[in-house]
Structures are given as structure tokens and as C-alpha cells.
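Look over this today:
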Amino acid sequence: MGALETVTVAMVAGALRVSTPFLFVSLGECLTERSGRINLGNEGVLVLGAMVGYATSYHSGSPWLGIVAAALAGAVLGAVHGGTCSLARVNDVAMGIAVMLAGTGIAFFFGKPYVQPSAPQLPRIPLGFWATAPQVRSALEVSPLFFLGIAAAFALHWFLRATRAGLRVRIVGDSADAARALGLSIDRVRLLATVAGSALAGIGGSFLSLSYPGSWNEGLSSGQGLMAVALVVFARWNPLYCAVAALIFGAAGALGPSLQTVGVTKGYYLFYAAPYVLTLVILAATVRPGRALRGMPGELSIGR
């Protein structure tokens, strides 16, 4: 293959891999924010989910049990965040930062014994079976979590648009006064949305340790949980757009490794900053004082 074809295949394969944690965290944050609450603690949920998933897979021998354990760990942190934010005079953003620090601290403390051991990894689906080049076949081995994430995007879109529970989430997120008039429990709806959203973020964390890069260490997340907030804004709080935005962020994250595959080594590390630069560009282009964001829930704290 030529250099262009090699970079293209590497970026496509990298996008499918790198986008998966973005996909789950952004879907979780989308659900939480649609209820009128922001959760910056998903960065801590992502790291804790990676550690718990890896440790569970190591001890049980089943990476699928690791994913379940990661989701449960995320749900617990989500319950802490949601329950505390239901109290009077508790700020969502400040509490989210506290949860982020707590999640990463707990993961680092209890995860030290699992830095060296090797845990069973998730199987991969060979999308490159048609190729004759072994490099292409290896690059296009995709985790089943990617397809589960795409399915989750469609399921969440259907849930918000076509179910009574989804309508309640949207009403609570758009207008607290309307929710009270209908007799809805605002705190309960937001708590459940935060718990479910954090569980999705925990699954995203398990992907990092059980699929790609497939190990546990303290620098595993690289701020993906925080970037998911910008991704949700870019996606205009639409789960299907979150999937598209996750692929874009994933492709940006795969840019540096893709260039390395064709021998571009001088200054390649600058391209590793592409996701962070993209985050800043998106925020600068979409979030402006006095400008309403289409699709933003009316009760969301960043909009007031």
C-alpha cells in the first residue's frame, strides 16, 4: 500500500478504536444533561471503571464480568453525584469536580496491584477479513463494545423520543416548573439519569483497560471524560450526533499514531494534541455569550 492508503486505513481503524470510550461517555453525559444536570465527574468514572473492569477480569477470568463491574462502579459514583446534587445549595460543577478527584484517587489507590498483572481481554471482531495484507486485517479488528455503543446511541435516541420515561427526562431537563405542575419528582428523575449516565461512562472506561490500549495504568484516560462534555455540546444533546462526534474525535486522536505508521516522526507528538485542539475549537465556535445553543436543556446550569 502507498503512504496515503496506509494513513487512511490507520485513521479509520484508529477512529473505530479511539472513538469507543468517547461514545459511551458522551452518551452517558447526554442522558444526564438532558435531565438538567451536568456531570464533570465522568472523568473519574472513566478511570475508576477502567480499574474495576480490569481487576474484575483479572480475578474472574471474564472480561464481560469486568464490563458489568465497571458499569456498577460508575453507577455508584453517579448515585453519589446525583444524590449530593439533590441537596440545597450544591453546585453541579463543583460536585462533579469532587467526584472526578474521588474517582481517580480511589482508582489509583486500589489499582496499584494491577499495573503489572495481565487480565483477559475482550475478543475482537475481524472487519478486515477481506484484506490480503496482514497489517490491514490486524488494524481492522474491532471491539464488540464499539457496536454495542452504536446500538446504545440508537436505543437512547428512541428512549428520549418515544417513551414515557424519556419524555419525563426531557420535561425535567427543559422546565422544572412544568415538571412540578405535572407532579414529576425532579430529584428522582435526575438521580436516575445521572446513575444511568455514569454507568455508561464506566463501560467506556472498561474499554480502555480491556480492549484498547488493553492495560491498566494511572495515565489511561487522558481527559476523555472531560472532553465528552464538549462533544455533547457539539452534538447538540442528540445521541445519534454523539455517535458521529465520537468518530470525529476518535479520528483526531488516531492522527498521531497514523502518521507514525508511514514514518513521520519529526514533530508527530504535536498531532497527539489534535483532540484537545478540536475541543477548544468546538467550544470557541459554539459557546458564545448571549447565544442560545440549539437543543440545550433549559434547566442546564451552563445555560444560566
